[in-house]
Amino acid sequence: MTLKRTRVAAVGLLFAISIAKAQQPTAPPEVVQLLGLDGVKRGAKGRLDVDKGNLHFVHAKTSSDLTIASVQDVVTGADTVKAVGNTIGILSMAAPYESGRFLSLFRRKIDTLTIQYQDADGGAHGAIFSMPVGAAEVIKKDLVAQGAHTLPVAEANAAPLPSNASREKEENVPASPEEKSAKIRASAIQVEIIQSDEIKLPAEFQIALYENLVRQLEKEEKFTHIYRDGDRNASTAADVVVLHCLVRGFKAGSERLRQVTTVAGATSITVHCQFTNADGRPLLARDVNGKVRFFGGNLRATYDFAKKAAQVTAENFSPSDAK
Question: DSSP assignment, residue 195?
């Protein structure tokens, strides 16, 4: 009887320990911030946690926080596969742009979390994180439970086009005599969210296109002010030009092929860039192509596009007022 009771007690103790472990809160997952958070270096490693109405990214003994109320959409890697299929491969989207050739040929155990949010002025922002598989879905559920907005997967690529969408589908606007002789003068530019109504584009690419474009325009320093989509301050700005971008072509390459062969697997994306004045009158239009042919993650194609698009603005616009 004593031995039997001892066994029963031992089983009961093990059961109690397993329950206690199950009830303990799991540690926030280790993640990499690929881009998007203000003041955070791309490729920064840290932990992501949802608590008391905020999304916390703790890195290098610092916490960068987003209020959940500001979150407009949350997309996981699994959502991307549902929306556009597995033609991209999550492993190809999870590496920072500066990835070396041999950083990791096998990244199928990595997931992504893409967040679109607004700043205090209503301006649109996006952030992309990579993390272990399964962690993204948990964080998304926590965000939604605490009030974050999210679009149904079926609507991810069905965002409405700008009001002048009919103009965006026209061919490139030819240069007027004034444009041929002088640059277009503007003191500010507002960058609209990248649209992709006919091309199934992963959320990661859509956000990376937008964030890289804003950053490259800031580096060019051609405009006194650069406003984001939705920024209420743009409505009172003088001499503002609006940049609308529509994805017209997308070829999903293979990072694995590029790393192994260096001659195959190129990724390319074509974006129609339409510049208008505040009233919607077309000023300039160009098709800009972004590519990654050799080394680097697929998202590097968005960086290539952004550099070229910023160069188009530098070549065709000049400040209306001296700084």
Answer: B
Question: The domain at 30-155 falls in which architecture?
Answer: Roll (2.30)
CA angle 94, 98, 100 (to 5 degrees): 85
Could you tell me the pTM of the whole model? 0.78
- Domain locations in the chain as residue ranges: 30-155, 165-318
pLDDT tens track, the chain, 323 positions: 565 555 545 555 555 555 544 444 567 789 999 999 988 998 899 999 999 999 999 998 899 999 999 999 999 988 887 877 654 444 344 444 344 333 333 345 688 899 999 999 999 999 999 999 899 999 999 999 999 999 886 555 444 444 444 444 444 545 444 445 578 999 999 999 999 887 888 888 899 999 999 999 999 988 999 999 999 999 999 899 999 999 998 877 655 544 443 444 567 889 999 999 999 999 999 999 988 653 345 677 888 999 999 999 999 998 875 44
CA angle at 199 for the pair 195 and 204, rounded to the nearest 5°: 65
Token pair belonging to 290:
């972004």
Token pair of 79, please?
Answer: 């959502």
Q: Domain 165-318 class?
A: alpha beta
In sequence order, what are the beta bridge partners of 67?
54
Q: Which of 296, 323, 290, 111 is nearest to 203 (CA)?
A: 111
| Rg of the chain taking only CA atoms, in angstroms | 23
